[in-house]
Amino acid sequence: MAAPPPSSNDPPSSVNDPPPSTSATATDPVIEADPGLTSDETDSTLGDELALYSEELDRLDLTHQKLRILLDNKLLLCPAQDPKKVLDIGTGTGIWAIEFGDDHPDTEITGTDLSPTQPSWVPPNVKFEVDDAEEPWTFQQKFDVIHARYLAAAIADWPRLVSQAFQFTKPGGWAEFQDYDLVYYSEDGTLADEY
């Protein structure tokens, strides 16, 4: 007779065994991009593999919502007026591009990312492309706004990325980079240099 499967509270049987699953279920109180989806459905171009990344995708969407609150519900800080073409570098779940598309129905938004984790049902003015922002850009047009955020630890060559962003920004356009300061400091000087 086979032993019963371990419960989620049982420790792994060895240090090489993966920990028990902690993935969210449809009944857990989590924020979802589409609360209408059940645990065995997906609305992504990634298909069934999306379940492997669901916690990280939820974290990205939650971080987006926190930043939206901190920025007084603004998606951009630059004073761009009526942009017609927008590029979202490292779009992640696509939530920024989707919300910008909803807010600006006459704007064409292109979101790029290494992973196709964006939903397939999006506003008609939003499209997603699998692309590596660190490779030479091959866009056939320039953009009124180029937006990027949360990429501090993802980009190896920032001068090249910024150079390409400016190369593909229309005259009078904007390139906006929103990110975290990864240098630890204290405003009152109590954080010593060795930390």
Question: How would you characterize this protein structure?
Answer:
There is one protein chain. The protein is of the alpha/beta class and 195 residues long. The protein has a five-stranded parallel beta sheet with strand order 3-2-1-4-5, sandwiched between helices.
Keywords:
single chain, alpha/beta, 5-stranded parallel β-sheet, 5 strands
Describe the structure concisely.
With 195 residues, the chain is of the alpha/beta class. The chain has helices at 50-70, 95-103, 158-167; strands at residues 85-89, 108-113, 126-130, 143-149, 169-178.
Task: Note poorly predicted spans.
Answer: 1-44
Nearest-integer average pLDDT: 80
The radius of gyration over CA amounts to 20 Å
Per the principal axes of the C-alpha atoms, what is the gross shape?
globular
As a percent range, the share of strand residues is 15-25%
Helical residue percent band: 10-25%
Secondary structure category: alpha/beta
Number of helices: 3
Distance between the termini: 55 Å
How many E-type strands? 5
Largest sheet descriptor: 5 strands, parallel
Report strand order across the widest sheet: 3-2-1-4-5
**Which H/E pattern describes the elements?**
HEHEEEHE
